[in-house]
Amino acid sequence: MKKLLLPLLLVLLPLFTQASAVTFSTKRGEPFQMYLNGKLVNSVARNVVRVANLQPGQHLVEFSIRGRYGIYRTGTRVLLPVGFESNYRLVVVGRNGRVRIQRLADVPLRPPVGAPLPQQPNQPRHYPGEYGTPQQQEQLQEPAVQTPADDDYCQNAITRYDFDKLLESIKARELESTKLTIAREAVRSNSITSEDLKELLEQFEYEGSRVEFAKFAYERICDKERFYYVYDAFKFDTSIQEMEKFINSRRR
């Protein structure tokens, strides 16, 4: 009888036990390394990392993300439901490197034949980063993997070093026309973020110069969905209205 029970238990046990899985990806394709419960998962940085056959429950996850302005670190604890693959997205926000961890969806794993689908517990939708400070001097352990998504986001973007030098050069000039010339030359063959453009516009004294350069630089902005950042650089509502008309005319 015992000899018959043992094989039967081995067959029935998988019907009632189901592992968990988790997948992390970056919104803009930034490569990253992931640590799970203190252990390095991927020695080569990638923009998508999946781990399967995990014990359901809480796990500590930490990330080292190569962003535009340096290396960003963040981490949190995630709760993995039994029988589901949890999908998360890492979003680097702003130059200070604040990282948000967004929960996208929990997808049921294929259960063993005859096993009921496990119930999905209620869980928080967002896990804010606990670290969020860019480590400018650190390097990833392995070379980062370049991805098309990363290139498409900001091709030929002005580096932080070059942008700081550009600001210094403009601040050292007195004539508004000279400032405009320097700014045009800097972005003529480079991309620029909305946040950097806002800071650049604030170096001009006259509102007309700000509007003029914003129009010139618009096609070179690599994150046009954040162009509303730029509006904070304008002093008058009429300037914002003029820019909105300009942008609408470019979309036709």
From TrEMBL:
It comes from the Bacteria. It comes from Pontibacter qinzhouensis. This is DUF4476 domain-containing protein. InterPro entries: DUF4476. Residues 110-139 are annotated as: Disordered. Residues 110-121 have a biased composition (Pro residues). Residues 1-19 form the signal peptide. The keyword Signal applies. Residues 158-247 form the DUF4476 domain. Keywords: Signal. The keyword Signal applies.
